[in-house]
Write a structure and sequence with these properties.
Oligomer: single chain
Helix content: 40-55%
Distance between the termini: 64 Å
Number of strands: 5
Radius of gyration: 23 Å
Shape: globular
């Protein structure tokens, strides 16, 4: 019996449902063999932005780990037919599920074409299946708080115990040419320091729980402070299991920070459920009354936003952080999204696509949900009349201007008094642009447009 584990975005040996299931199968069938494969379809690979770079760096680290454990991954390059032919001898195919499109359709196509041969799609990327949390009438939630309350009543699975030594003892090492994949690894280089790998992910979780979780409620909105978990990139590539994160946090001492962080993990589940059951949200507002909003065609404004040249220091610092590091602090994501959709009245989809291109931790469900929230067009979104004032936000969450100085270096010598809102003369002296839009006027325009 040949068991193939189809590696996708689950670059870890611990707390991996697919690998735990493979252990079960070989224990039931001592003569069975196991093999790890990774399918790479060149048609799905875009430009080598930070997101792609991080993905391949994480894959390379996992590949090296598997090789060290004497379980080398077999890489397959080509279209779907090439993949199916390469795994044709799999008596059992295992993979961790993706429940949103286009991956859901791809996976169902593979299952169908394998016919009667055993294929198992396993829940791994999330704590609960998107079908698990429903209202009493059987419908799915569109408001977060009642969803969270129902979620908390469910039994959350413990981390999977993966005896990878058992897999190694049954591993099928066949002759194959993996040389092509090194070209992708070589391309996946960036000036940014990503720290990929399961080991790094576990260290980051340990540091967060021990040093930052207790004060998470107070510090999570401060971009100049290391107050967030920074685990999103590791969850996106599966370098750490979500059950491991949840269990370690639950074992920590009680604090407001702990409860707030658990709520953030549930937001991740909520948005995934929304995207699965309301797939139109990928390109349409979940709140149907706002689907006909007339957005502005402001290409120069959009370019200034992308480049971090809006004249609002906190917005520009955030966008430059994104462009330089492939990541952005969550409070800043809300600020820049509000600025684009309310101050500039530019379609949220343009911002969402830019984030998709740039973010190393991009996950469609959370990103789309966050953008629709900020644009006031999504489920349980911020009211349309709530328009973030970027200068007020800056003074509140980057009080001393430390974050701004890190990224908007041309004005780093300005005092705390002026760093958030330089004078006209200071802008001229430091060659920093005037605001591309007057916030008070833009706010009134946005509210009127939504009304």
């Amino acid at each position: 019996m040949n068991i193939i584990c189809w590696v996708r975005s689950d670059f870890r040996l611990e707390d991996n449902h697919m690998l735990a299931r493979a252990v079960e199968l070989v224990q039931e069938n001592p003569k069975a063999s196991v093999e790890f494969v990774f399918w790479l379809n060149p048609d799905y690979i875009g430009e080598y932005e930070a997101r792609q770079q991080y993905f391949f760096q994480a894959l390379e680290v996992f590949s090296d780990t598997c090789k060290e454990k004497d379980m080398p991954i077999r890489f397959i390059e080509g279209d779907e037919q090439a993949f199916l032919e390469a795994i044709d001898d799999a008596d059992i195919l295992l993979f961790n599920a993706e429940y949103v499109e286009p991956f859901k359709a791809r996976d169902e196509g593979i299952i169908k074409k394998r016919g009667d041969r055993q294929t198992e799609r396993l829940l791994d990327r999330h704590l609960l299946h998107p079908h698990d949390v429903k209202k009493q009438d059987g419908k799915f939630y569109k408001v977060f708080t009642p969803y969270k309350n129902a979620f908390m009543k469910k039994e959350i699975p413990a981390p999977y115990d993966v005896k990878w030594q058992t897999l190694r003892d049954h591993y099928h090492k066949r002759q194959h040419d993996n040389s092509f994949i090194t070209n992708y690894f070589k391309k996946a280089r960036s000036e940014a320091t990503f720290h990929p790998g399961e080991k790094q992910a576990k260290q980051r979780l340990k540091k967060f729980v021990e040093q930052s979780l207790g004060a998470y409620e107070e510090n999570r909105d401060l971009p100049a402070v290391d107050g967030t978990s920074l685990l999103s990139r590791y969850l996106r590539t599966g370098e750490i299991g979500i059950r491991t994160v949840y269990a370690d946090v639950q074992e920590a001492n009680e604090s407001k920070g702990k409860q707030t962080f658990i709520a953030e993990l549930i937001w991740r589940e909520f948005y995934y459920m929304i995207l699965m059951h309301f797939p139109e949200s990928k390109r349409q507002a979940v709140n149907t009354q706002y689907r006909e909003i007339k957005w502005e065609e402001d290409e120069s404004g959009f370019k200034a936003w992308c480049d971090g040249q809006t004249g609002y220091p906190i917005v520009d610092a955030a966008m430059r952080q994104l462009n330089q590091t492939g990541w952005m602090h969550n409070r800043l994501r809300m600020i820049v999204a509000s600025f684009l959709t309310k101050d500039l009245l530019i379609d949220w989809q343009k911002g969402e696509r830019y984030f998709q291109q740039k973010l190393v931790d991009y996950e469609a469900a959370s990103n789309i949900g966050g953008w629709q929230w900020a644009a006031s067009v999504g489920t349980d979104a911020v009211p349309y009349f709530r328009v973030f004032n970027p200068t007020t936000q800056s003074k509140k969450f980057d009080k001393d201007g430390d974050f701004i100085r890190t990224y908007v270096t041309e004005i780093k010598d300005l005092s705390k008094q002026y760093i958030h809102e330089p004078t006209k003369e200071q802008r001229k002296d430091y060659r920093y642009p005037e605001p591309i839009v007057a916030h008070d006027e833009a706010r009134k325009r946005a509210i009127a447009r939504f009304k």
